[in-house]
Amino acid sequence: MGVPSSAGSYAAGQDLAPAALRAAGLVDELGWSGLNVHDDGDLPHQVWTPDREHPLAQNAGQATASLVELTDRLGPLLARGDFTLVLGGNCTIVLGVMAALRRLDAGVPGLLYLDRGYDINIPASTTDGALDWMGLAHALALPGCVDALADAFGPRPLLTASQVAWLGVDPRMATEWEREQADQLGLRVTTSEAFTADPAGAAAAALHYLPAGPLAVHFDVDVLDFTDAPLAENTDGRNTGPTLDQALTALTVAARDPRVRVLSIGELNPTRSAGTPDALPRFARGIARVVAAAGR
User: Fold this and answer.
1) How high is the mean pLDDT of the chain?
2) Which of 44, 99, 275, 280 could form an S-S bond across to 71 if both were Cys, CB 3.0 to 4.6 Å?
3) Distance between CA atoms of residues 254 and 111, nearest Å
4) Three-state DSSP class for residue 17
5) H-state helical runs in the chain
């Protein structure tokens, strides 16, 4: 399923990702891996525009509507036992994914969050107004969140800190607010350096920490070394972070865990790879191998 939205982003671009991944052969690669593939199509296309009326939480209404629709669309797929691949868009998609998992009523759900950042900012902790690094703050219902977004999925909070494990975080790129919240909440975090040293071991340890209910894995491509895989909206990760192959190693470990029901992908901007024609096909092949490892 595609969520072609950049409404909560810094600018347009991520809305092109689902179509670009299909054009790069993702659906074919999944089929060639021996999987029975159903392409459930895309949610309505949303393109970022400046929201001058809400400069510190731009386009929150559009983003919230898309996430509620994602929750509703995912419900029947998950209820029949399908493994679901969600193509963003930006990182806010994880709210819709986790809301759908919670609706399954199959135990406390958990989230493995592979990302260079914590994504626990609130409008007052930044000046850019981009919701794509505020998603988990709204899932955790941190003080200062946008009420309409935090309340969109039922009782607050959508997640507690014990339901999430972060992989690949670079604390130097976090805001002061995020670092303070991470310390106060006691977040389960594996830094970028530790993750890169042992991707498989870090993934296994994080999975062991998460609850016994259904799990989602979110893969924010800005965790990657941008020089190795120029795919992310955020280009700051040059020559730091895991390679694509290292990230795929961790994702494969996660996919083999029978609790994992969903893999979501965020922050991929196809325009970043214009000078590297193989970047998107390489990414598509890798994601297909990960999903095939799930065997369901």
Assistant:
1) 96
2) 99
3) 11
4) helix
5) 17-23, 26-32, 60-79, 93-103, 135-139, 147-150, 176-185, 192-197, 199-209, 244-255, 279-294
Beta-ladder partners of 165: 112, 188
Q: Nearest to residue 232, comparing CAs of 244, 224, 241?
A: 224
pLDDT in tens, 123-149: 999 999 999 999 999 999 999 999 999
Amino acid symbol at 271: T
Give the strand pairing for 260-266 and 84-88: parallel
Q: Is residue 295 very low, low, confident or very high in pLDDT (cuts 50, 70, 90)?
A: confident
Sheet of strand 84-88: strand arrangement: 2-3, 84-88, 260-266, 215-220, 110-114, 164-169, 188-191
pTM greater than the 0.90 cutoff = yes
Given the structure tokens 């975090």, which residue do they identify? 189
> Would you say 114 and 251 are in contact if contact means Cβ atoms under 8 Å apart?
yes
The neighbour count for residue 239, using CB atoms within 10 Å, is 8
Distance from C-alpha of 293 to C-alpha of 296, rounded to nearest angstrom: 8
- Phi, psi of 57, deg, nearest 5: -150, 75
The residue count of the chain comes to 296
Helix (H, G, I), strand (E, B) or coil at 168: strand
Phi-psi region of 138 (alpha: psi -120 to 50; beta: other; left: phi over 0): alpha
Residue 278 has pLDDT above 90, yes or no: yes
pLDDT of residue 150: 97
